[in-house]
Amino acid sequence: MRVSISVNRPFHAVLMANTLSHLDQDVMIYSGAPRRYFSGLDQRVATAFIPAPILGASYKLKISLPGPVDRFDTWLFDRSVSIRISRSDLFVGWASQALHSARRARLLGAKFVLDRACPHRDFQDRIVAEEAERVGAKARKQAPWFRDRQLEEYELADAILVPSDYTMKTFPDHLQAKLLKAPLLGRCRVPESVSVVRKKPFTVGVLGGNPLRKGYLYLLQAWKRLALPDAQLLLRAGDFAGLPVLKELMGSLPNVERVGYLPDISDFYRRCDVFVLPSIDDGFGMALVEAMVHQNACIATTHCGASEIITSGHDGLVVPPGDSDALAHAILSVYENEELRQELALQAGRTAGAFLESRAYEAAMVKMLEMMGKDTSLQ
Prior knowledge:
Helix 3 runs parallel beside helix 4, helix 8 packs parallel to helix 9 (244-251) and helix 8 packs across helix 12 (324-336). By secondary structure, the protein is α/β, with parallel strands linked by helices. The strands form 2 sheets. It has a 7-stranded parallel β-sheet, sandwiched between helices. Strands 10-9-8-11-12-13 form a 6-stranded parallel β-sheet, sandwiched between helices. The longest helix is centred in the C-terminal third of the chain and has 20 residues, at 338-357. The protein is built from 14 helices and 13 strands. It starts with a strand and ends in an 8-residue tail after the last helix. The protein has 2 domains: 2-185 and 358-371, Glycogen Phosphorylase B (Rossmann fold, 3-Layer(aba) Sandwich); 202-357, Rossmann fold.
């Protein structure tokens, strides 16, 4: 089967392309990123560079594109792929980037699979808008035309890949039959050695991008309320500019360290006794699995898709989203009970190891090929 993948940035395209190549599919990636950015890509996977000058300039200047520019860039990439794309049996496009190219691929005889790593567009917009109001910010409103193209992608797709049950539940009933769960397992590094010995000071870590979706408000509130002696919070997060409530909270907390870029993310996890992912919206949250592999005692919310592999109280703690009291209680329980913390950490490593060995993503790709009319099996 010939499979075309369209993605303007690498995202998890290497995981998908390598898995499909391992399943003996003929794979081509169309992207605005040169091949060198697809680290670890199987040599059998072909790539086609689609010039994306706006995207390239943003990378070189290390700036985020304003909303209107980003949306135009996405539209332009999609249009460019629709002109360049060749005939294939299966076309996989990333959500919001694939409407015109998917139409063209279908005209050429392909089935269309949409990859949506986040919840349904309207659900995500609503939850982020509510969070923005809580931190004194203005939510970036989605342009109506851009929302319409995203919804049309959902309707056009023959199947929609999502990473978790949490994400699946955000889609309306009439789309449920199209959904296929494909947990994002491929980026996780397994460390050579780890230790569950308590650090000095006791260290809680959190990392993630969008501060609205990651729920930092509730973690900082919990941390302030706890005021733990001989403890620190490591925060590797996006800028809090334009988020006055978060900036004020940060200013009132002396025992919080902002962590910059790390060439080896394992160094971050090794500093932690506890890893917290307080997300209000996280389609999967690969960082949680990474932290578990590094034998951190982990705390996550039910709005983090990867929390589905945790049995709360056995190999981690799972709390409701947007609940600073629950977060404070969970952190305090592992701070005060060293035996509990070590047991959660040890079991987390075992659970995450078994999860990584389960080949769940490969099984999802097999099922996708079968749904699209290609019989195959795990090798």
